[in-house]
Design a protein that fits this description.
By secondary structure, this protein is mainly α. It contains three helices and two strands.
């Protein structure tokens, strides 16, 4: 049986990697942080670790957070990737 190549966490990782490719060499007026983390099934441990090391000033300076954990998922073993778009 063929399985989709980028399932669950992998589909979430490929997006920031591709975004970094797109942003290279562009002038951006704000700091952009692309955080690839782990442990979300156990209480967002990777993200919590990142947030814990921020100063209060750095924390309040965050304007936007986009969480892309699972973008694609082969839910029915049909060999076709379904795109997740929320509930």
């Amino acid at each position: 049986m063929l399985l989709p190549a980028a399932d669950d966490n992998s589909s979430g990782v490929v997006n920031p990697l591709d975004l970094s490719r797109i942003l290279i060499g562009r002038v951006i007026s704000s700091t952009v942080v692309l955080l690839l983390s782990t442990g979300e099934e156990h209480g967002a441990l990777g993200v919590q670790s990142f947030v814990d090391q921020l100063t209060p000033e750095e924390f309040v300076a965050i304007k936007y957070v986009v969480d892309v954990d699972t973008l694609g998922y082969g839910a029915n073993n049909g060999g076709v990737m379904e795109l997740f778009s929320g509930y």
